[in-house]
Amino acid sequence: VKGTWMGSTTLPCTYEPSEGFTEQTLSWSVERDSSTSTIFRRDDSGDHILLSKFRDRVSVPKHTPGNASLLIETLEMPDSGHYTCQVIWRSKNNSLITREVTTTVKVVKEHPPCSAVHL
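Structure tokens predicted for VSIG4 protein:
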């Protein structure tokens, strides 16, 4: 996914909600410079933004089952990295199922429009 500096981008993470499976935990983490940090976590106690530099800049749709996409606003150059969405479901027989999807984000500065030179 390409994002424009100071713009916003959505990192896709969707699934088909199915009978008998309850979403337990949803988390988004970012990996850069070989260290991974969790940005966002949704569980029984609500939504938590765990990295202060993403506070007020990230959100995940609340009332759309199956959509766990992450919206990042006011992109900064250091936001480039590998973002992983991890969803854990509990089934009726209490087993846990985990799925992950990773999206690479590259933040670019847009070039100013070329001004035509009149000779």
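Strands lie at 2-4, 9-11, 21-32, 35-43, 46-49, 58-59, 70-72, 81-91, 96-108.
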